[in-house]
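Handoff note, outgoing to incoming analyst
You'll be picking up this chain. Sequence as last confirmed:
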Amino acid sequence: MPGRPTPLPYRQTCFTKELPAMSESSWFPDEIEGENESDQSDDEEETLLLAIVGLLPRPMRLSEDKLAEAARKAWGLEIGIGDAGKDGFVVGDANTGRFMIYRPDGLVLVNVINVPYVPNVEETAATLPDLRLQKLFREHTAWFSCDLLFREEHERPQRGEQHHYRMLGRLFAELMPAGTLLLYLPEFQRMYAVTEKTIAALRADDPLAALEETWEVPVVRVESDDPEMLQAQETARQTWPQFVAAFETQKGSGFAVKVPLGTGKDVEFIWVLVEAIENDRIFGRLANEPVSLKDLEEGDRIQANVADLNDWVYLDPQGDLVGGYTIKVLAKRMKENPHQED
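Most recent structure output, in case you need it:
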């Protein structure tokens, strides 16, 4: 599953009739923290918010012109600036990074904030069970978001409605700068590392499902003397002939092994898609991107010793998982302690 951090304090700007006078509040799943009455007029009302957040390695700049152009391209609508535009218009302030797009069917708020998403980046990063997500989260220094606002109770959507995320996703795809590190969906507490598949996923008819397809195998920290993991490794080695027999007869698919790569403290156990087995050597390609090994990337060819085998896995002809002994241990732990780092 994609990373599920401890719910991040989502920075929301509430809708107000007189833009750009907007006030900031903190948002948690299933709860909106109320603002001080002195900061919010009787004309303002807090609203349900759906959002896509991008965490950035460097500050981002946006203007009304650029936002209107992105909205026109994303939605195929005539979006103007100020009050001009057949299908809607943009208002906002580049200095504060607060913008609003008025559409006949909704209001889209765009935030461009050049400070970290949370006050304590290191503390929040430590709650992420995936080391890859931890690393990327620590690198962010700014964020932007596309939020869909609703002013009436009857307008509030059901959980995860596709057409709302389709609207946000296509706009987000036009705005997302190169180098964006992570996407965060507050409604689901889902965090995704940005990959070459992310833009297409955001533009998909069902962006929620498409983003799930961009998921990468999580990288978790495991102690070298962990008894359960050592037992899982021993089981994998004892049953290795089963994998070899299935691979040689191709009775199944997705044949992969997990082996250690690197030296010293920079050792990662990484899945390798097996292409050949010769005596005591395994040949294949990296199935996912290393976190710390700078000289390797997904798809690189590698060789490994059978003696170093940590785990193996494949799908049998019926599509059932075979092997994956360490996977089962880690999955059990993450289910029992979803916010705990292994």
